[in-house]
Design a protein that fits this description.
binds NADP nicotinamide-adenine-dinucleotide phosphate, two-stranded antiparallel ribbon
Length: 331
């Protein structure tokens, strides 16, 4: 029987998502990798419970997380039944639809047909009456944005979700989506985008849009799937690491130029008495645009190391300048 730690809210800080009423923890946990039915369920359970014990109230899922697709949500549903049900009102659980999920023309992209059916499937797998945030996972070039945003509005109004979000939308599409949702009376809570020291596309217009429109930003793959940690600094690929087993992080990514960059960043972290992963998270948290940094973890030890990023001094201007110089190095 799981008893959540009584001091779970003592150290975590919570940031308001844009101009909404909702606050998210500075670190949130995503279940993209390590929580599928091919993974060790006991280890996965320990990570989720430890996260909650440390004040991580936000867990991010999507219809297709696994592998196989759907199995991360089923795992989370099993945890709802076994451990988390008493804490439902302390949790922000999100899911998404937008990538291919089932065969035929109604299991992908952004139609109302797909989004509503997928949300119902996610709720059934997660054993939830509602999700807190439901996202459209990626823009759909063919479906009118009015239809996709109308589906998010309907999902909220019908009680399947409390808030609507968008993910991977560029600045122009994000602005249009935000305005449509506002007109419908279901304001966009948050945008979920890929942002890290190695991927800065959101700085090219999206951050300004979110700031102006009062929409939060939650940044995924903040550690570049493990590259911005100590995991690969010597150029080798540890057994069991994401680069050794996931198509999403290919060993070819570890070029000599990238390794030089990562080691230069690690030495700045070392001078602070910190690790590269802590530096990478602090670098994102320095922004007022950041509502939450959405990490992954394959062990409790990794989670604990990443939580240390919330302690100690922030980055000085001199350190930020040094980081800029390193980030300008070619990969
Ligand atoms: N909206 C979208 O399109 C989208 C896309 C991708 C992700 N996301 C969300 O963002 C979440 C996080 O993404 P992500 O997993 O790519 O994030 P990440 O934090 O950049 O990478 C997490 C991985 O890095 C390694 N790692 C983490 N901390 C470490 C440490 N202290 N030391 C050494 N290695 C460490 C682990 O991999 P190994 O131990 O396995 O090597 C871990 O699984 C996902 O779960 C999902 O919720 C959303």
């Amino acid at each position: 029987m799981y008893n959540a730690k009584e001091d779970r809210y003592d150290t975590m800080h919570y940031r308001r998502s844009g101009k909404s009423g909702v606050k998210l923890p500075e670190l949130s946990l995503g279940l993209w990798h390590n929580f599928g039915s091919d993974d060790d369920a006991d280890a996965a359970e320990s990570i989720v419970l430890h996260a909650f014990d440390r004040g991580i109230t936000h867990f991010d899922l999507a219809n297709n997380y696994g592998p196989p697709p759907g199995s991360a949500e089923s795992f989370f549903g099993a945890m709802m039944i076994k451990n988390l049900r008493p804490f439902r009102d302390e949790l922000i659980v999100s899911s998404k639809a937008g990538y291919g999920m089932w065969p035929g023309p109604y299991g992908d992209f952004g139609s109302r047909k797909y989004l509503v059916a997928s949300c119902d499937q996610s709720l059934a797998r997660m054993k939830l009456d509602y999700v807190d945030i439901f996202y459209h996972h990626r823009p759909d070039p063919d479906t009118p944005l009015e239809e996709t945003m109308g589906a998010l509005d309907y999902i909220v109004r019908s009680g399947r979700a409390l808030y609507a979000g968008i993910s991977n939308y560029g600045p122009d599409d994000a602005l249009r989506a935000i305005r449509i949702l506002r007109e419908l009376g279901t304001p966009c809570l948050i945008h979920q985008g890929n942002y890290s020291m190695l991927n800065r596309w959101v700085e090219d217009g999206l951050l300004d849009v979110l700031d102006r429109e009062g929409v939060g930003g939650i940044w995924y793959s903040p550690l570049a799937q493990g590259l911005l940690t100590g995991r690969y600094l010597d150029g080798s690929i540890p057994d069991g690491s994401r680069a050794s087993r996931s198509v999403f992080l290919k060993p070819e990514r570890l070029t000599p130029a990238l390794l030089a960059k990562l080691n230069a960043l690690a030495s700045i972290a070392g001078d602070r008495g910190e690790t590269l992963s802590r530096l990478a998270i602090k670098w994102l948290l320095r922004h007022r645009h950041t509502t939450s940094v959405l990490i992954g973890a394959s062990s409790v030890a990794q989670l604990d190391e990443n939580l240390l990023a919330l302690e100690g001094a922030g980055l000085s201007d001199a350190e930020l300048n040094k980081i800029e110089t390193i980030l300008a190095m070619p990969e």
